[in-house]
Amino acid sequence: YWLNSATMAVLAGLALLATWARGDACSVLGLAPGRSAGGSLWILGLLIALYLLDLARKLATPSRREATAARWKKLTPFMPANGRECAHSVVMCLSAGCCEELLYRGFLVPYLLGLFDPYAAAPFVAVLLPAAIFGVSHRYQGRAAMLQIAALAAGMGWFFLRTQALLPLVILHTCIDLAGVCLSPWLMSSAPSLTPPVSAKDP
């Protein structure tokens, strides 16, 4: 958990350094008040609704919960199984929410927008390319999850393109990660086939 958090912090630091080296203000990264986000909050509302619907589908029945737990255990074995591991995971969630949003939305979106500025497709490239990279970086979660994460990232990139506001995305990203961390111990314990049997020699 801590190594992952440190890696993300280094990458975010490099993005800040590159922005400073280009002579750009930190406001380019969404670290200053941008345009009013009021007219674009529906995008975040839609992303939250889609996430909750998908989560409800995965947890709707005991068999689906067990299948979800088995998939998490196989593809993401680092997910916490108890309270102690959850405490460490919270650090990773906060780091991911801050550092990944700074890198993938705050840095890459305006950078690509400027790089492809002469072309009409610049906004699409600026939103979709970071989303694709973000999705591929989560390929260890499986193809379906990778595509879902890329779609979510595209929506978040679109929101940032319209508002230049990074804080709402940091909050949303952190909350989504924390939801998974908090659900993981309960989900693992509710799947009988994943719970090790108690030995007769155990007290």
- As residue ranges, the low-confidence spans are 196-203
Mean pLDDT reading: 87
Biggest sheet descriptor: none
The string of secondary-structure elements, in order, is: HHHHHHH
Description:
The chain is mainly α and 203 residues long. 71% of the residues lie in helices and 0% in strands. It contains seven helices and no strands. The chain has helices spanning 2-21, 41-59, 62-75, 83-115, 122-136, 143-163, 167-189. Helix 4 packs across helix 6 (143-163). The longest helix has 33 residues, at 83-115.
Any key phrases for this structure?
mainly alpha; globular
Short structural summary:
71% of the residues lie in helices and 0% in strands. It has 203 residues and is mainly α.
Topology:
Blueprint: H1 2-21, H2 41-59, H3 62-75, H4 83-115, H5 122-136, H6 143-163, H7 167-189
Helix pairs in contact: 1-4, 2-6, 4-5, 4-6, 4-7, 5-6
